[in-house]
């Protein structure tokens, strides 16, 4: 069964007015399936994949000639393996800027390559396909991000989402389609183990020369154990026995492969944000749990282990919603010197701010809102509302613009109709 992807309308709109669209994201998230579905809407669209050795060699030997032989519309899969194609595409697009000429997919962030980013500026739109969202799995049109920033109260919790144990199942399952399709935890674990091995042995080789591949794997495992923690480069460097410069390069590779994501710090003074440490999360909660060796029994027994993993789950779900939201806000975190913090902050281009705190408990108390109150005081009039997402079943107000919401409100249907 092919699930409806909420990013599809975003891509269709981009293809209608932009010469090239690049769909990036981790391997096994459904990029090829989505690209093929979009290509089927236009007869005669060519399909090439750089995973085929002959096609890859042709692209590397004569990128201009390969592009010249293509019909007016083409899908080029796994384009990060042949970055020369992107450089050659500049001249092709400059000769003919018809919209929708190229739909590209990549399992690595090719825009981290400076020459590529510069050559396609203004010629290409980029969209990210993350693993399946909970709304895509349940058939709900999720718009919590836009609703919160607009000041709307979220809808009722998703029908049938069930008790905390079912939320835990969703966290451990994650969103990779292949992992979702496997009902037994042991089979999901086998998928995650093979997935990481393939990425670190194959895709890393395409990106960079790694002198210590075992250290890269240890770094990924360490991040999984500490997912949701403040990034402390010096401490990670000491633990792994790596120079800070090497650690920085390895972190960049893991982010380029969409395995790890940073959540920067929020400050009312934008100039201070770059000097404050980000949080580091594994992109998929199922992958994080597998890497950390955590299963349902351990997480049920020790809720202190569940908290960081649940936060990473929420980060991932919000990141997915941001990719198709109207507001397209930044995703940040908030921390004050006295120690008050908010797990996640949404801030849109107009400066509107929403805070979200994640709690791995079935009850919420007034003290759970202390960080959100500090954020509201700091943000002033920009503060729209604050939410504590928890494992209870009731939506409860805790003062003006402060609400405790069941965690499954993340993927509940929106209370407002979608604008045409």
Could you give the topology of this structure?
Layout: H1 8-15, E1 20-24, H2 31-39, E2 46-49, H3 53-61, H4 63-68, E3 74-77, H5 83-95, E4 102-106, H6 114-119, E5 124-128, H7 134-138, H8 144-149, H9 164-173, H10 177-180, H11 185-207, H12 213-225, E6 229-230, H13 233-240, H14 244-256, E7 260-263, E8 279-282, H15 285-292, H16 296-301, H17 303-324, E9 330-335, E10 341-347, E11 353-358, H18 370-379, E12 383-390, E13 396-397, E14 402-406
Helix pairs in contact: 9-15, 11-15, 12-15, 15-17
Question: What would you note in describing this structure?
Answer:
The longest helix is centred in the middle third of the chain and has 23 residues, at 185-207. Helix 5 links the parallel strand 3 and strand 4 (102-106). The protein has a 6-stranded mixed β-sheet with strand order 9-10-11-12-14-13, sandwiched between helices. Helix 11 (185-207) packs across helix 15 and helix 12 (213-225) crosses helix 15 (285-292). The two termini are 28 Å apart. The model has no long low-confidence stretch (mean pLDDT 90). It is built from 18 helices and 14 strands. The protein is an alpha/beta fold and 420 residues long.
Question: What tags apply to this protein structure?
Answer:
6-stranded mixed sheet, 18 helices, 420 residues, alpha/beta, 5-stranded parallel sheet, 14 strands, 43% helix
Tell me the span between the first and last alpha carbons.
28 Å
Our Rg estimate from Cα atoms comes to 22 Å
Globular, elongated, flat, extended or rod-shaped: what is the shape?
globular
Question: Which blocks of ≥5 consecutive residues have pLDDT under 50?
Answer: none
Overall mean pLDDT score?
Answer: 90
The strand line-up of the biggest sheet is 9-10-11-12-14-13
Q: What fraction strand?
A: 15-25%
- Give the proportion of residues in helices: 40-55%
Helix tally equals 18
Structural class: alpha/beta
Tell me about the largest β-sheet: 6 strands, mixed
Number of DSSP-assigned strands? 14
């Amino acid at each position: 069964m092919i699930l409806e992807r909420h990013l599809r309308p975003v891509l269709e709109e981009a293809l209608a007015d932009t010469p090239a669209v690049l769909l990036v994201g981790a391997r096994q998230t459904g990029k090829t399936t989505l690209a093929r579905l979009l290509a089927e809407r236009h007869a005669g669209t060519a399909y090439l994949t750089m995973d085929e050795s002959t096609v890859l060699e042709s692209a590397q030997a004569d990128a201009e000639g390969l592009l010249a032989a293509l019909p007016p519309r083409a899908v080029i899969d796994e384009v990060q393996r042949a970055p020369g194609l992107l450089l050659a595409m500049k001249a092709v697009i400059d000769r003919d800027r018809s919209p929708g000429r190229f739909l590209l997919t990549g399992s690595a962030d090719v825009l981290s390559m400076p020459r590529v980013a510069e050559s396609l500026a203004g010629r290409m739109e980029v969209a990210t396909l993350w693993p399946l969202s909970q709304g895509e799995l349940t058939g709900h049109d999720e718009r919590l991000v836009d609703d919160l920033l607009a000041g709307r109260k979220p809808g009722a919790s998703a029908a049938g989402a069930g008790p905390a144990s079912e939320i835990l199942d969703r966290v451990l399952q994650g969103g990779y389609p292949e992992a979702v399709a496997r009902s037994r935890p042991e089979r999901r674990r086998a998928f995650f183990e093979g997935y990481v091995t393939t990425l670190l042995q194959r895709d890393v080789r395409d990106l960079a020369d790694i002198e210590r591949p075992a250290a890269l794997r240890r770094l990924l495992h360490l991040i999984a154990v500490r997912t949701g923690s403040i990034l402390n480069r010096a401490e990670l460097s000491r633990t792994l026995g790596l120079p800070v410069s090497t650690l920085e390069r390895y972190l960049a590779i893991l982010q380029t492969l969409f395995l790890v994501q940073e959540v920067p710090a929020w400050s009312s003074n934008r100039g201070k944000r770059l000097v404050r440490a980000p949080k580091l999360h594994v992109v998929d909660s199922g992958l994080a749990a597998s890497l950390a060796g955590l299963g349902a029994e351990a997480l049920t027994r020790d809720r202190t282990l569940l908290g960081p993993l649940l936060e990473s789950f929420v980060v991932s779900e919000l990141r997915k919603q941001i990719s198709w939201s109207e507001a397209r806000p930044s995703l940040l975190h908030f921390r004050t010197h006295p120690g008050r913090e908010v797990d996640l902050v949404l801030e849109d281009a107009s400066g509107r701010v929403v805070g979200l705190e994640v709690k791995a408990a079935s009850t919420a108390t007034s003290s759970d809102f202390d960080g959100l109150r500090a954020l509201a005081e700091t943000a002033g009039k920009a503060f729209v509302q604050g939410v504590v997402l928890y494992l209870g079943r009731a939506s409860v107000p805790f003062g003006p613009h402060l609400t405790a919401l069941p965690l499954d409100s993340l993927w509940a249907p929106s209370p407002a109709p979608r604008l045409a």
